[in-house]
Amino acid sequence: MDQAETFLGFPAEGLAPGARGLVVCGIAADAGPAALRRASQRLRPDDPYPWGVDAFAGCTVRDVGDCQAVDTALADDAIDAYAGALLAAGNRLVTLGGAVGVTPALLAAHARAHGRPLNLIAFGAHPALYDHAQAAGSIDPDRSIRVGVRTGVAGGRETLSAVWLQEHGPAATLARIRERAGEGPVYVSFNLDALDPAYAPGTGAPVVGGPSTALALSWVRGLGMLDLVGADVMGLLPDRDVGGITALAGAQFARELCGLIALRLSDRAHVP
Predict the structure, then answer these.
(1) Is the peptide bond before 127 cis (omega within 30 degrees of 0)?
(2) Cβ atoms 3, 12 nearer than 8 A
């Protein structure tokens, strides 16, 4: 993979021995990571918007390619081991994907690396990820939150449903996310079906009634004060996309999450 094919044009060579920084990788179970990388070529890594600075200046960033996971019983172990090796070297990881089922393995690797369950912020229309991660012991259910759910039953877990988001507004939404996940290591999983299918049609299980891309970006941008230790952008199905708008939205969310982590790594954590 040459630099013209990497996410945001980040260097593709491996990290030098002992080097620590931000690592972007993909889970090559489908075409999602490649589509996100292609869409990212329309974005500038050094654009100071929205932070007012070049978020990646002074931070070692690499796109190390894909974990060659396949949809088998061994995939979770392969993803866990792959992510675990990168995290054990002291890196922070942002993962690109299509298949949403890979996130529990990523959470397991991060929880092990940090020696404790994580505070999960799960953006998505469906609640299953949160349930699986809680059952595996990878997240702290008292410090985790689901945002944008509009299927199923929330139960007693902390959930900001699409109806709640509409009734309370953007400021209250961000305040509640920060209050819930503000203490301890935070992992953000952004499933693109969190967005209304008017903005992200290229997902596996679109559900109408979700937020716009701009509104969801405002929530992600407000997470700069949290200790963001890892993130993923999942759910892209390129063959269902229309004009590449879902891929472009996914690339933008991945860029924003990378930027927040890079700013923290270089001691410039962004607090809006």
Answers:
(1) no
(2) yes
- Read off the DSSP letter of residue 125: S
* Tens digits of residue pLDDT in 134-150: 777 899 999 999 999 99
Architecture in CATH for domain 3-10+20-265: 3-Layer(aba) Sandwich (3.40)
Are the CB atoms for 151 and 127 separated by under 8 Å?
Answer: yes
Q: What is the DSSP letter of 16?
A: P
Helix, strand, or coil (residue 34): helix
pTM greater than 0.85:
yes
163 vs 125, 160, 211, 214, 221, CA distance in Å?
12, 8, 10, 18, 22
Measured CA to CA, the distance from residue 245 to residue 247 in angstroms comes to 5
Q: What is the CA radius of gyration of the chain?
A: 17
Element (H, E) at 62: strand 61-67
Strand partners, 67: 27
For residue 165, the one-letter residue type is L
The residue to which tokens 């890079």 are assigned: 262
| Sequence-ordered list of residues with C-beta below 8 angstroms from that of 65, at least 6 positions apart, any chain | 1, 12, 25, 26
| Longest CA–CA separation in the chain, Å | 51
pLDDT digits (tens, 9 = 90+) for 106-164: 999 999 999 999 999 999 998 876 677 777 789 999 999 999 999 886 544 689 999 99
Which amino acid is it at 231? A
Cβ-contact 207, 125 below 8 angstroms: yes
C-alpha–C-alpha distance, residues 83 and 4, integer Å: 24
